[in-house]
Write a structure and sequence with these properties.
Elements: H1 4-9, H2 13-16, H3 21-39, E1 45-49, E2 57-60, E3 65-69, H4 71-74, H5 79-100, H6 110-119, H7 130-135, H8 137-151, H9 154-157, H10 161-185, H11 189-205
Parallel strand pairs: 1-3
Antiparallel strand pairs: 2-3
Helix pairs in contact: 3-5, 5-6, 5-8, 5-10, 8-10
The chain binds zinc ion.
């Protein structure tokens, strides 16, 4: 805990720039270990892979793996985008943990809401469903968490223009998603999304 800053500092350009791909991947793994501890959940294995650039990462629950796009270790300027992605996917690991490892229960718990969402996940594969995808509870929570975490580093990386660009971008996306949902789905968008989740659930369970 005391030495978390040693891991964070690895992302400073003067260090990052000299690291091999393995060392960069290891820095992300160390960051995941810190995250897991903060969220009181098992540590996931961070695995980098060639993926389409639209695909940033993915949490694979059965294997407890966080798959990450390899571009985050090959492109210097994407390392904070990689950080955001790691926090986002790590939050899904946490959601999964509280939903299915018997950590939280109760009628009004967030776990209940998340469990419903996992059961009726909206993949957004149809293209015109971006608002449904982005505003469903587990995605919204993961983005909110990742943004908060990334912003908490402003005193450490505030001088780095890629850090600032990533924070501004993600911040804008976070607010735009909500405005877009209101525009496309109306004021009761949350209700519409919940209904859509139920349809997804029924499609796979009946
Ligand atoms: Zn997600």
């Amino acid at each position: 805990m005391l030495f978390n800053f040693l891991t964070y500092n690895k992302f400073k350009f003067r260090k990052w720039d000299k690291y091999s791909l393995e060392e960069r991947a290891y820095a992300f793994q160390k960051l995941e270990i810190i995250q897991a501890k903060k969220l009181h959940r098992p540590v996931a294995n961070v695995v980098f892979r060639e993926m389409d650039e639209k695909m940033k990462g993915q949490f694979v629950p059965g294997k407890n793996i966080i798959l990450m796009n390899k571009m985050f270790i090959t492109e210097d300027m994407l390392r904070f985008d990689g950080m955001f992605t790691l926090f986002h996917e790590g939050r899904h690991a946490f959601q999964h943990h509280v939903c299915f490892d018997g950590v939280e229960d109760g009628l009004f718990s967030r776990a209940r809401k998340w469990r419903k969402n996992f059961g009726g996940y909206i993949s957004g594969a149809n293209g015109d469903e971006f608002s449904f995808y982005a505003m469903q509870p587990i995605e919204r929570d993961a983005n909110k968490y990742a943004l908060q975490r990334l912003k908490s580093f402003r005193f450490r990386f505030g001088e780095d223009r890629y850090y600032n660009a990533t924070v501004s971008f993600e911040e804008r996306c976070f607010y735009d998603d909500k405005f877009r949902a209101r525009e496309e789905l109306g004021f009761f968008y949350k209700h519409k999304i919940a209904k859509r989740q139920k349809e997804e659930y029924e499609r796979y369970n009946y």
